[in-house]
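>> received
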Amino acid sequence: MALNREASVTATLMSACEAFTGLPEGADNKFSLIRMAERAGRHFGLSFADLRLLTLYVSYTRAEDWEEGGRPIYTRPVFRTASDLGISARQVNRSERKLEALGLIFRDTRADGGRGFVRGRAEVTEEGAIAFCVDLRPLAVAWPALKRSADAVRAREEAIDAARAAISRGLRQAAQLFAEAFALNPRRICAEGLDGLYADLPQRTPRHRDLPRLVTAQRDLEAFIERTRALFTEMMHANPDKVSDAESVLVSHRYNTKPDSESCKNRPVANAPESGPVPPNGGNCLEKSMEEAGGGTKPILPPERNNLTALFGLDIGDEAQVETGLDRLRTTQVISAMPEAWAFEMQGFGRFSWRAFCMVAESRLVHLGVGSHAWKRLCLVTGRRAAAVALMALEANRFHPTKPVRNPGGAVFRFADIAKSGGLRLDAMVLGILARMEAPVT
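>> returned
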C-alpha cells in the first residue's frame, strides 16, 4: 500500500517536471516563488524550516534555469546543506520528504545520499551527466495551488480583522446602551439578568487571532446588544416622559471606526442652554486648538464658551443617576485643575473635548491602580464624564499637603457608594484644587 502511494507521488512529480514551461504568469523572478510559498505558509503545510531549505535550494539556481526548456536543480549533498543551515542531516531529509509530499520538489538521490554529476558511465559521451539532484521544476508548476493557499490566508486575516473591529465597536455600543438602560430602570435590568451578562463581557478587544473564538465572542456580544436594545425600547415606551436619545441615535456601524462618524453628528444635546445657538456636532467638540490658544500647556476655550457648565453636551452614557455638582462647575475650571500628565495627554488631541477627556481618564486607570470593575461601577452611578472628573481630582490630590490620596483604586470604588447617598461633591473637590494651585476661579 505504501509502495503504491510512493509510486503515485513519484509519477505525479515526474508529470509536473514534464509540464514545466518556465516561470508561471505573475512571477517576476525565481524569488517570487519563495514569496508566494511564504504567504501560503502553514495553510499549505510549510514550516519555517521547510521554507529555509526551499529558499536555499532556489538561491543556488541560475536565472536561465527557470526559462522554458531549462532545469532548475540543486546538486549539493545533504551534509553540506545541513552545515550551511546549521541543522542536522536528519532534519534536511525530513524537510525534503515533506516538500516532496507537498509536490514542490522531486528528489533523485542515490541510496547513500550522494548527488551531483556522474562521470565515466557508458552512456555519458561528453563532460558529464546529471544523474542525482533535487529538481525544483514542480515548485513552478505548483504556483496556482500556492496562490490559492495564500488567498485563503489573506481572507482569513481579513475576517479576523473584521471580527476584532466588530467586537471593538460592539463593546462601546453595549456599554452605552447598558448605561442608558440602567439609568432608566436599574431594577428591571437586574431582574432580567443583564447586569450579570454585562459583567461577563470582555473588558477590551481580545488580543488573540483565533477566528472561531472571535466569531463566538462577536455573536454573544451582538445578542447582548439586541436584547438590551429591545428592553430599553420597551422601557422607553412605558415611560414616555423620560427624554433620551439612545433609542433613535445609537453608535455608528460597528465596522466604521472613524472617531467622528456621521451617526454621531447633529444629534440633540442634553442639558443644552436655553438661549444661544447649538454648537456643531452637538457641542461635544469645543474647537480650539493649542496653537490658537497661544501654545499654552492646557487647552483653552473660546471666550463665548467660558460660561458653559461641565454638563454641557452630554454623550450617551454620561448621564448620572445622582447629582454630583458638575452643574456648578465650568469647563474652564476643570481644564485649569488638570494635572500635568492629563494636560500632556490632552495635547495629543489638539483641542479640548469631553470625549477626549474621558479617554484620557480611562488611559490613567492602570497607572493609578484602578480596577475595571470599580471604574464601571462609578460610571454607572455618576456617568462617564463625572467619573472622569472624579479620577482627575483623585490624581491631583495624591500630593495633597495634609490628606494625600494613597489608594485611588479604593477611593474610586468608595465614590460610587458616596454618590448614591448624595454626598459626592465634585465641584468642591475641583475648587479646592484650584485654590491650592492659586489659579483664578472664574
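>> The chain is about 50% helix and 5% strand.
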